[in-house]
Amino acid sequence: MNNLAPAEIWYVTGSQTLYGEAVLKQVAANSRKIVAELNGSHRLPVKLVFQPVLTSSEAIRQLCLDANNSPKCAGLVLWMHTFSPAKMWIAGLTALKKPFLHLHTQFNRDLPWGAIDMDFMNLNQAAHGDREAGFIHTRLRLNRKVVVGHWSDTEAQDRIAVWMRAARAWHDWQGAKFCRFGDSMRQVAVTDGDKVTAEIKFGYSVPTFGVGNLVECVDAVTDKAVNKLCDEYDATYTVAPELRKGGARHEALRDGARIELGLRAFLKDGGFKGFTTSFEVLHGLKQLPGASAQRLMADGYGFAAEGDWKTAALVRAMKVMADGQFGGASFMEDYTYHLSPDGHLVLGAHMLEICPSIAAGKPSLEIHPLSIGGKEDPIRLVFNARPGAAINAAMMDLGNRFRLLVGEVDVVEPPQDLPKLPVARGVWSCRPDFKTACAAWIQAGGAHHTGFSYAVTTEYMEDFAEMAGIELAVIDAKTDIRSFKEQLRANEIYYHLAPGLGRL
Ligand code: MN
Hints:
The protein is of the alpha/beta class. 39% of the residues lie in helices and 21% in strands. It has 15 helices and 19 strands. Strands 11-12-17-16-15-18 form a six-stranded antiparallel barrel. Strands 2-1-3-4-5 form a five-stranded parallel sheet, sandwiched between helices. A hairpin with a 2-residue loop joins β11 and β12 (343-349). α6 crosses α14 (458-468) and α8 crosses α10 (250-270). The chain is elongated and about 85 Å long. The mean pLDDT is 96. Residues 305-306, 333, 350, 449 line the site of manganese (II) ion (MN).
C-alpha cells in the first residue's frame, strides 16, 4: 500500500505500589505473556508493544507524552491488571492525543475454585480495577472502545483487530495531504465544506493545484515508460481489440497510460495519499483520468471525483483499514435504481472511477464516449462488483460538525447482463429495505458520493468516528425511520453541547 507509515500499538498495564515488588513483577510477566500471545495469534494487524507496568501519576503522564511524541505509536491498549487508583491517570489521559482501547480482561481465564486465596484475589483485580479506570475515562469524557473477554478469546481479539485497523487509518490521516486538481464541481453543495475545520479535526490538509501542474508531469513521461505500462495493461486486463497495439484506437490507450504515469509522478513527488479530479478542469489533458484513477485507487490512493476531498480522504482511510484483507474499497456513487415490485435495487457506479479491488472477475479495459467534460473519449476499466455484504460511508460537513453516515447493503449479481453500460458498477439491496434506507440516508443529508467496502464493516467506522470525535449515524437491519430521525435530532443537541462538556 502506498505511503503507509509503520505503526505499532502500545500495551499499557495499570497497577499501584500497594502490593509489593513480587506482585508487580508477576503483573509485568503476565502482561508480557499476553502481549506475546496476542502478537502470536496472527489475528492482529498491528504489532502490540509491551510497556512497563505503571504505578504512579508521573510515570503515567510520561508514558502518555511519549506516546504523543512517538511517530510509530498509533494508539494504546489500556488494562488494569490489579487496582490502579484512577486519579493517577488524570494528568496522563488529559495530555494523551492518541486513541485508546480499554481491554477489560483478566490474566487467568478460569477461577481456581479449589485453590483460590487472597494472593489470587490481589493479582486478578481487573473486575473492579477496570471499573475504576472506566469511571475516570467517562468522567474525562474520553472516547474509547471497550473490549471485554479473556485475551485468548478470538472474538475479543477480532474486536481489538478492528480497532487497530481504525487506529492505523486515523494515524495515517495525521499530516496526510490530499491533492485537489481544481475546485469542487461548480454549484455542488455536499462535496464542499470547511477545509480549515477538517484539518483541525482530522489532521489532513487539502492543497489545491491547477491541472497545468499535472499536465507538466504528463508531458514529461517518456514513450518507453508508456510502452511498458501498455504491456502491463495487456497482462492484467482484457484489453478491447481497438485499444491494442495495431488497433484503431491504440493512441487513446497510450494517452491514458501517459496520464496515469504523470499522475503517479505528481502524487509521489508531493507525498500525497489521495487526490480529486474535476471533469470541469481538464485544460491540457486529453482525457478525464478514468483507468488511471481506478488503478491508483487499487494501489491505496484515496480518490473522489468532482473535487470531493472529504470522500477522497474517507476512501483512503477505508483503504488503510482494508489493507491486507480480502474485499477492497472504492469510491462509489448511488447512480440509478431498479424499482420493481419484486425487489428494489440500487445500481452504484460513477462516470468512470470505481476501484478494481472490488471487481468480481478480470476487468476489461475499454474506451467509450463520455458525454460531459468536452474531451476525448477516456479509457476505463469495466467490471461488476462481486456479491457480498458491504457498506457505503459518507462524510458531510453540517456547518457545526461532521457527520459520518454508514449504510449496510448486500451486493447481488445483476439480475440481467448490462452489455451497453460502459462503466464499472455494483448492484445492491439495502438494509433494512430500500425505502427505509433511502429515506434515512436523505433525512441524514447523506452525500451522493461514498466510500464503499466489503472488508470494512460498520464496527470499523464506529471505532473511527470515536477517534475523530464525530457523529456516526448507521442505517442497518435494525433501522426504523422514526427512531432514526429522533437520533439525528438528539445528536444535533449533543454535538452542539459537547464542546462545553469536555474535549470534543
Ligand atoms: Mn459524482
